[in-house]
Amino acid sequence: MSTIQLFVSFCVFVLSAGEIQEITVPNDAWDGTHSVLCATIKVAPDSYIYSFQPIRKPKTVRHISVALCDAELDTTKVWDCKTPKEVCPNGYSDALWAGAKDAPGWNLPKDYAFHVKKNYNYVVVQIHAPVNMTLNSTKSFNRMGVKLGITTQRPKYIAALALFGNMGFIPANTKDFPADTACNWKYSDTPLFAFGIHSHTMATAITGYVYSNNSYTEIVRADPRYPEPIINIDDRNIVLKDTDILLMRCTLTNPNDQKAKFGYEHTDQMCNLNLWFGIPKEYGNAYKPFVCGRDAQKFSLEGHGFVLPENANKPDIEGYKKLMSQFNLTMTSY
């Protein structure tokens, strides 16, 4: 792990509902030799994070994400962190939030917040930039990262994130290639309160379903051409059971003569569905991060007996446009 000896900005603003803490990477750290950098702050145990507001200049970085880490980290340095293991060196990370394509920040619904535990109290921001970006500091723009809303008041539900993604590759010269993922849900009486997506350039639709009692409940049929905000859906009252199965289909088109692999590099493809849920109290400290991934060459939903709705390969163009309108977002090529 290479580190850069630069001061990492750490500011605290006290609010009536809690406080705002910043984690940022100085612009001067982007010296033309990095495409992904991380920074961290240490947060008091038994705090609760209830909002994420990105600090950035439009069309400067591709992706900003935040995770909790259980290892001791140096809060005065920034470091290269392309892979999940590098986000939390010598430890384990628990992803909280991500925003891409200049998506707005996120306020969790009032009954939810992330718990900062005693052994998971380093909060890390990871910033994906264009390859070998060079960035100078100015008086009005000298750092990028995220503002965290933090409180000591325990919410009704502890928030957690379930990550769904793919491995393998998209074959060359392929249109509407389905990359499927499915996992059994592990918890009973679990409220599902938000979703988000993330993809690179080849995804044309990202769809998610709850399979329960031989029926499909659509979570989303997302259109990847938009920025990627987190959408609160607590008003839909979706409650997951430990007999449910969560399904994701990513539909992709590869017009190139070479296959495109899924991975973390800028030249790779990614296609993720992120689901946020409330941890039932009875699971408490027994909760473990939920990650669900399948190999696109070895797994298909139809091959395991699922018969998806006919429109599973298509985005809900008008419905998703309406969802984006609440943020005043339009399609983007960035």
From TrEMBL:
Residues 1-18 form the signal peptide. Keywords: Disulfide bond, Glycoprotein, Signal. InterPro entries: Cu2_ascorb_mOase-like_C (IPR014784), Cu2_ascorb_mOase_N_sf (IPR036939), Cu2_monoox_C (IPR024548), PHM/PNGase_F_dom_sf (IPR008977). The keyword Repeat does not apply. GO terms for molecular function: copper ion binding; oxidoreductase activity, acting on paired donors, with incorporation or reduction of molecular oxygen, reduced ascorbate as one donor, and incorporation of one atom of oxygen. Coiled coil: none annotated. It comes from the Eukaryota. The keyword Cell cycle does not apply. Residues 165-276 form the Copper type II ascorbate-dependent monooxygenase C-terminal domain. This is Peptidylglycine alpha-hydroxylating monooxygenase-like. It comes from Octopus sinensis (East Asian common octopus).
